[in-house]
Amino acid sequence: MNIKIGQYIQGDSFLHKLDPRIKLVSMILFIVSIFLVPITLDTYNIVAMITLFIISILLVFLSGIPLGKVLQGLKAIVFLMTFTFIIQLFSIQPLGENPLLDLPMNLGLISIPLLILLLVLYFFVKKRIKFKTTWFFIFVVGIFYIQYAVTLIPMNLDGFNYQFLVYPSGLLRAGFIFLRIIAVMVVASLLTFTTSTIELNDGLESLMKPLRYIKVPTYMFSMMISLTLRSIPTLLNETDKIMKAQTSRGADFNESSIGQKIGQIIALLIPVFVISFDRAEDLSNAMEARGYIIGEERTKLDVYKIGFKDYLALFVTSAILITLVVMGIAL
Amino acid sequence: MDIQFKEVGYAYQGFKKQYHALKNINLEIEKEGEFIAIVGQTGSGKSTLVQHLNALMKPTSGTINILGTVLPSKKKIKVNHLRQKVGLVFQFPEYQLFEENILKDVEFGPSNFKETKDHKTEYAKKSLKLVGIDESLYEESPFRISGGQMRRVAIAGILAMNPNILVLDEPTRGLDPQGKDDIMDLFNEIHVQEHKTIIMITHDMDIVAKYAKRVVVLNQGEIVFDGKKDDLFQHEDFHTFHLDYPTHMRMMNHLHETLGIKKKFVKNQDELLSYLKEVFK
Fold first, then answer.
1. pTM of the model
2. Residue B174: alpha-carbon gap to chain centroid
3. Which of A55, A8, A5 is nearest to A194 (CA)?
4. Cα–Cα–Cα angle for A212, A216, A221, nearest 5°?
5. How does it sit in the membrane (chain A) (predicted)?
6. Which of A167, B210, B239, B240 has the fewest CB atoms within 10 Å, i.e. is most exposed?
7. Residues in chain B whose beta carbon is closer than 8 A to a beta carbon of chain A?
8. How far apart are the C-alpha atoms of A289 and A24, rounded to whole Å?
């Protein structure tokens, strides 16, 4: 079993050294800026979007995290991005503009079985190859190509005939949204790449401090978060051990049928449950033995100091935001 | 040879580099009549080694032949049946209990294999008797008995699978002296009566001196010694193995240093006693 919790990668870059509170706030400011750029096809908006996109890519280089690693995190949303892209292409059909691409398409008796065949082939090959993302793109192109290819057959086609029209503005708009999603994802993943869970928790706690005045027990939340994060690796470790112990008793999770699996899951869950209660009790005793009282004022081992680079980060992100707001009002 | 390791290596994939838990292991184990102690420092690869014995882990280099099944194999093969033949008892096995009563829990192991499925109750009762769990407890919840009893039940859960080879990862850890002796006597009895091979990891050199026949010493993932226990304790490089001497030998060494008694190799406390009587006559 190999599950990674959090994706913090150690380093000593500018982003790593930033105060977590400032990092959180700056990130929020930056993401808000990205969303503030209106999706219209005026030159300055396109320039603004591309600039923000380039800044987020530059931030990756600044952080010292390999670009490949960051892009890997984007794989999860490849489907979503492709889907939005295609929807944009189809829905933006402005009048009075010459289409870039005008292809007849058919969805009928010949193309539907072919599409199903392609789908089966897609899932069949997917399990056996490594470059799954590339294969997905080939699949998407394939869907449209089949619909186009059947119209080349010189015969009368029944079913749903339509034109596949790609307009320049549709393409631009789709690209615009594409850039926006990537930029937001990159910035958000950079936060988790460069901030350890402890720092993140500290940052959140101190940002939530004002809530105490309205009697929200923020200290409890932050303790809950840190205890949860702390116990995840321990529990995974214990689960792994129990799994191996039950496998040794013949409950192989890889080689059994669905019916057997249900019984085996119970053999795994109950011991893990028992262990987690044991551990929780031990931990709470250990904490109380060291003087922990819920709600009491506690001091911190790491005291964060806001320095020059923090002000710089805050200044730059606010400047970007303000510029965009002013631009939006003025133009 | 019933279990054979050939140049076995196991490497964990770290973030940037590989960590070698086992390197170049060559080992041969018979199905019958062996009592092997695997010793070594923490982190020397003992646990990793024993998990290879029942195919829980597969070597990243080299091959293992477990009772005729060669691993790793290129084809996808089923390895679950091996676990019936090589029974592995983990550290703190009491955590693996989960059923509503003790008998059912012990039956869980045998019910998973077609070889033992039909006799599960018979085997379960037999092994519970062997570990000394009273019949009145069979219907009791496994979470309501004492820690020592829980461990016995868990061990019975493996014994009920009727394995040819019994592998134990620190079975005495966390037990009191009496509990230790009881459980070791139990394994010794299984070994003597049924000629089953027993392989155990331990840090307790007294147990090694008392029960084991053969000792395998691991150091940083490599076998540095494999042979009879008497040869081990008389080995001239013993200090490089990072091990302790058993109590009677420590006493001998102490007497040698303080009273100047001439050193002699003694196998157990009785031999030490008779030697001392001889010296002071």
1. 0.72
2. 15
3. A8
4. 105
5. Multi-pass membrane protein
6. B239
7. 51, 54, 56, 78-80, 83-84, 87-90, 93, 95-98, 108-113, 143, 157-158, 161
8. 34
Contact B95 A275 (CB under 8 A): yes
B161: closest CA of chain A, how far (Å)? 8
Sorted by where each starts, the structural domains of chain B and their CATH numbers stand as 30-59+69-233 (3.40.50.300), 245-281 (no CATH)
Q: Is the pLDDT of residue A2 over 70?
A: no
Examine the pLDDT at B216 and tell me if it is beyond 60: yes
CB B124 within 8 A of CB B112: no
Give pLDDT, residue B15.
Answer: 64
What 3-state class would DSSP assign to B68?
coil
- Rounded CA-CA distance A248/B35 in Å is 20
Q: Do A244 and B51 touch (CB under 8 A)?
A: yes
Residue B85 near residue B29 (C-beta atoms within 8 A): no
Q: In the predicted model, what is the mean pLDDT of residues A144-155?
A: 81
Calculate what percentage of chain B has a pLDDT beyond 90. 36
Burial of B192 (0-12, 13-18, 19+ CB in 10 A): exposed
Query: Which residue is closest to B115 within chain A, CA to CA?
Result: A250
Chain Cα centroid distance, residue B46: 10
Amino acid at A108: G
